[in-house]
Amino acid sequence: MADLDVVLEHVDKTFAGETRAVIDFTAEFERGEFVAMLGPSGCGKTTTLRMIGGLEEVTAGRIYIAGQDVTDLPPSHRDTSMMFQSFALFPHRTVFQNVEFSLKMQGLDRDARHRRVWEMVEMVGLSELASRRPSDLSGGQQQRVALARALISRPTVLLLDEPLGSLDYNLRQTMMVELKKIQQETGITFIMVTHSQQEAMSMADKVIVMSDAMIQQIGTSREIHENPRNRFVADFIGNNNLFRGTIRSRSGSVVFVESDTQLYYVKIPEHIRQVRPGSEAYFSVRADLMHTGEQPNMANKVMGSYIATEFMGTLETDVFEIEPGHFVHVEQHRHLSDRVYQVGERETVCWAADSGVLLEATRRPEDLEVA
Ligand SMILES: Nc1ncnc2c1ncn2[C@@H]1O[C@H](COP(=O)(O)OP(=O)(O)O)[C@@H](O)[C@H]1O
Ligand SMILES: [Mg+2]
User: Fold this and answer.
1) Taking ligand 2, which is a single-atom ion, which protein residues have CB atoms under 5 Å away?
2) Which among 119, 295, 330, 336 counts the fewest CB atoms within 10 Å?
3) Which of 58-62, 173-177, 224-228 has the lowest mean pLDDT?
């Protein structure tokens, strides 16, 4: 376990009243890694983070930090620092003193302390406000003080619970870059909880997607983006189009899936060993791998009616209805010469055979009980 900073083995948390907040959480965090736990509200992210920090006892399973079993140790005996969702700042101290506090506790001399505090205060953009008290700061500024205070002691593992949640859009973009830079500079393992796909995908080396108290997928942003493992992940991450049908037959690494009106070619990802003809299947196709108009070499074609366009700079998402109530999103760069669609206009939407990814069912607590 030499290069593993944090290991969770089959960790469960059931609160009084039988809320199963975390079920069978098993994951490894490497030293110096930036890991994001991503999922909708209530899926168990904060609880998992608090168990790593020792603020919540586990119901079952083990937790290791730097090779040591810390499952039964209090927070003060774990080399973790937590940045709370509520800032928990000292109200009667200045920004500077709030950030300085833990260095004072460590007994660092005045010059070294001041150097580090000024560096940190500057890094989070608070130099002008260093002599203010928390009550004279906005929520976003208080959040930055909390971040500076959590980082100043240079813990082995920093636990961050929705650290950018209360910042406005522009500041959040800046802080995402800063956070990543700080993490790389310090080499501290960051474990961050977020419900924001953008935050997780742009900052983390590794993303743990959760829902219903369970891990749905662990992978790099790219892996999760390119090969969502199951229906939940495909639906929650990225701009994916979901399709349902019946498996007809298999040909090597491709499977034929039939809907009421269409036959689709779909890639079978490596982790799926068996496909049963006749069974129901779901697959997803990324919006940016779909094309409008007849295209050569695209095995999948479907007709749709133009509904609307969503704009994002030079990137456009055109929405087509291919069956009543089934909308597909086609994301493309827009050129001035491109055709402008009228609502209701018919157009072919196509994609390559290996752009469709066959999906597993979403993991649910019931699956484990059967196993
Ligand atoms: N102290 C607690 N007592 C009882 N239930 C709790 C407690 N903390 C969290 N929960 C429940 O556990 C589940 C997971 O919560 P949480 O970990 O906070 O989710 P997330 O951070 O993903 O939004 C939720 O159903 C929540 O209501
Ligand atoms: Mg939470």
Assistant:
1) 46
2) 336
3) 173-177
